[in-house]
Amino acid sequence: MIWTPHARPVLIVVVVWLLVASVFVAQNIVTALAAHRPLGWLPVVGYELEYWSVFALCTPYFAYMARRFSLDREWLRQSVVAQLVGGAAFALAQPVAADTLNYLTLVALSGSGDPRRVQFVTSATAHYPVLAIIALWKYAVVIGVLHAITYRHRLREHELRNAELKRQFAVAQLGALRMQLQPHFLFNSLHSAAILALREPERAHRFLVQLANLLRDMLRSTRREEVPLTEELEFLDRYLAIERVRFTDRLTVSYEVSVRAETAIVPSLLLQPLVENAIHHAIGQHSSARNLVLRAQVANGQLVIEVEDDGPGLPPEWTFESSAHTGLRNVQARVNLVNGRNTPLELCNRSPTGLCVRLTIPHRDAEVMAA
Fold first, then answer.
1. How many domains does the chain have?
2. I need a surface site. Which of 109, 128, 225, 343 has the fewest CB within 10 A?
3. Between vectors from CA 142 to CA 138 and to CA 148, what angle results, nearest 5°?
């Protein structure tokens, strides 16, 4: 048998109606046993299968009526009228079709003088109005089920479309924030190069060479909106190579990154503004500050990242709303986007000196997502 694209839905339709028919066949068997009647396969099984075969053959008609005259609020009245007309047409035709199949089967299996043939015609004629009403009721049930399936399918599509729109919106916002960070980073770097050029031209030259290499790497590779933490740390190393030209032996950076955190997914350029902020406000303005620690670990399904310096910390009057600059505000906005809610950065003064900036985002493993 050659499996075609249309074979699967046909098979599903056949299986569904066979299951429905089997319920009524089982009901006939139980009724016959309870009444102590003989189990003739023709009235108990054959007639029932032929009765429901009409429904199976009319499935395309049901699907068309449900799709063409859906019970949407805008066209509700017209659809109800159309369904009543369509249901009445089916109700009038279905008993005739089923009885015709039953009669032909009886003729084929019985002799020419079998009295059951006359009895069958008499009984079918007498019960036709009742059978038509039952067929109309069953039509309503079938259409109702199809409407429910269609509604669920549309609801699922609507949910998927909304989720995709939210994802695209978040990606666009992350991209916009990242584009704000790049000129901010470039402005600060050029400002540092200008200061170095006045005092130490040779160090300024090395600084600009390192900066050119970093910018060339950024232009060559189209940075994704989200990257593994190890990739973010590699970019951070290239940035720190520039800062080490400025501070020579005054800048000491250490990493405390757990194995699970190394493959965690983070927004690109998330750490550089935090590190730059620590270098500028702590090490750059206080000669006693020289140590920078970056920590990352996974706890309770969350990725926790800390950037700690040994500078003087925040003054008592400092607040995020009034004092935070572009770097911190962009990091805060990106953390909120990733978390889907407002999640303030934690800025804590250390004792005796120092500042720790902590952020928390959901843990997503790059290797698991790529599998």
1. 2
2. 109
3. 140
Contacts of 342 (CB under 8 A, 6+ apart): 336
- pLDDT tens for the 371 residues of the chain, in order: 444 556 788 888 888 899 988 988 888 888 878 877 777 777 778 888 888 999 999 999 999 998 888 877 667 888 889 999 999 999 999 999 988 888 888 777 776 566 666 777 777 788 889 999 999 999 999 999 988 888 888 888 878 776 765 665 566 555 555 555 556 667 777 777 787 788 778 878 887 887 787 777 666 544 567 889 998 898 888 888 878 877 777 889 999 999 999 999 998 878 888 998 888 888 878 878 789 999 999 999 999 999 999 988 898 888 888 888 877 888 888 888 888 888 899 999 998 889 999 999 999 998 776 65
Q: 348: which strand partners?
A: 356
User: In 3D, which of 177, 157, 158 has the Cα closest to residue 338?
Assistant: 177
Q: Give CA angle at 37 (35, 42), nearest 5°.
A: 125
**277 Cβ contact list (under 8 Å, min separation 6):** 325, 327, 328, 357
Q: By residue range, what is the domain housing residue 58? A: 7-161
Residues 209 and 284 reside in one and the same domain: yes
Q: Which helix (H) or strand (E) holds 359?
A: strand 355-362
Q: Which of 134, 161, 188 is the last residue of a domain?
A: 161
Question: 253 lies in a domain?
Answer: yes
- The reply to whether 20 falls in a domain is yes
Do residues 146 and 238 both lie within one domain? no
